[in-house]
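Example record

The entry below shows one chain as it appears in the dataset: sequence first, then structure tokens.
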Amino acid sequence: MPAALFAQTQQRRQTTPDTVKTLQAVQVQTAATTQHKADNVITLSQVAMPSAVIDRKTISLMGSRRLDEVMREQTGVAIVSNLGAGNRSVGVQMQGFSSEYVTILIDGQPMAGRNSGNLDLSRISITHIERIEIIKGASSSLYGSEAMGGVINIITRQHVTQPQATVSLTAGTNKTADISAETETSFARNKGVLFASGSYYTTGGFNVNPYLEKGSQTAPPYHSLSLMARGRYQLWPSGTLHISARYANRRSTMTRDYGVTPGSDRLNENDLNVMAALESRLTGRTRMIARYYLTRYHSNQLIAQINGNHTVQQDRFNENIHRAEWQVSHQAISNQLSFIGGTGGEYQHVHSTVQGSSGNMYNYFAYAQANYTPLPQLGIIAGARYDGNNLYGGRVNPSLGVRYTPVTWLTLRSSAGSGYRPPGYRQLYQVFTNMMQGYTVVGANVFAQSIQQLKASGLVQQVWPVAADIQNLRAETSTSVNAGFSVRPLPRTQVSVNLFYNHIRNLINTQQVGIKTNGSQLYSYINVARAYTKGLEAGIETRPGGGFTIAAGYQLLYTGDLAVKDSIQQRSPRYDSVRSFPLPRASAVKDYFGLPNRSRHMANVQVFYQLKPWGLYLSARATWRGKYGFLDTDNNGFIDPYDVFVKGYTLVNASLQKKLLQNRLTLQLTLDNITNYTDYLMPAQPGRMLLAGVCWCFKKDKTQE
């Protein structure tokens, strides 16, 4: 992952607790390169899948403000928008898996509050983030059954080295302003440490859709408040109590006016995470943690017509997750073998004023894994996890990883794992109409009776034959395989390549199944029997000297539904033609572009430069994403060359940072999307953004960089 590689040249203080070493996304990290976590025994050294770290300093040098801005510049990571959402709802794809299959964690615990599968990354401020761990592929052995596509684990400040405080202000385009403050200290003769931070973020929103009337937005004005506190206290020599809490609130109002029936969409979101953990070290080689975690997401959405201020729809949504977990790790005396294991469960409660989307769900799990190093050049990771659900039963998911270094300049790696994901309540029972867009989504388990009610109300014009495929949804399963190598052809240059293949059975897909009388879409969910994502990731990083670090990454991705390909070959009536010009023609497998919203090609280039004597740091980054299918306009069941595509595009960003007064004062200038590229099919991508920031650090002693 090129954005993370800069940290290797920026942080060489191996003795300081907050040093983070980063590796490219195609690498499996080892214990020597993984930072200790205060309240979790799981580190990247126990992960068999490709992984990478973005550290705090790299995030700062990028000038990013929200999590989505950081992730969009990473190799093999695509940011996607939810066009029907009433807020700036942006999710993430990895290895071709959509947002539903990428688990977002804070300090190893799941976040709540997904909108149509997307967990909106723009909700998350980077103020509290110490580093970001990214794992690609099925990671269920340690991180849970829903991590079929991968994991983004947000690590908050864990290690306090000295009392200090920081305040910062950033302001710029689109009435954007970000005010934040942080403080950290030790107490009780260093038995305890405390870290606290807060940030206030506001933006005036923007509009990238030329068909909207003046004053409308595709990304709404909003303001957000985020608060974070974290502390630990040594109760006895081998026992430590860890407590953390995070609260975030966001209020947004979106106005959409096509000149017919203008409307407003107001959304108030509240996000709460609380964790308490007791750590015990039985011996120098055995560590146990008992942990309780609560996450709560609440939203209140009000859709109204502007003329007459008539309320069209109001939805109050609550999601609560209570999670308890016990973990243990043990290092054998020989240091060649280590173990990690755990067990726990969670209770999930969902309540909504919208019909059918309330209920309870129980999940329970147990996992065990061994890391074995029989030879210095050979490492093996093997593990398994059992995930159970009160509605869908359980499944055992194994994982295996091997690292082999035949010579000092070459390392070979391979890994395999499986994933398991039962349907969510919204996919099963939700009946929801977006009044701003007009479409309706009907849960699979209530489809038959709900369609009859909609027909009786005169709201359905036509139900397509594909609706016959709707039945009780089955749990999804996946198999993930990765294989690659890293090589150092020169002392300061590293090249990495990773091949991946993911096979998904019973993939739950959002499917248009008809048309409403108002001309809008009617959706439900069906299982796709056999889907796949496969491709290649490659990266290069070099440090030619003179303070420069240059990195580049590329992803080649193929995705598809094997059942659709078979139907095209067999001349199935639904898939037998494409809308070519001037006349339709028979379809062929080569017409099938793959799953929507996936680009065949993605690439990025990043250049970092540091001039330490002057306290000067510069970065210039560019990301390119090839075209991707957006909408099946002729309803023939697949994206073909005559459907709607988002064109390929390049985003160019730059940042300049200057440190003064013994590094206490930092000035920063950030310029995002220099070419001012926008597309109305990408509603969350703003035009050119110019921001200036200032940061002051209060500390007793000089910090050496």
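Notes for this example: The chain has a mean pLDDT of 84. The chain is about 5% helix and 55% strand.
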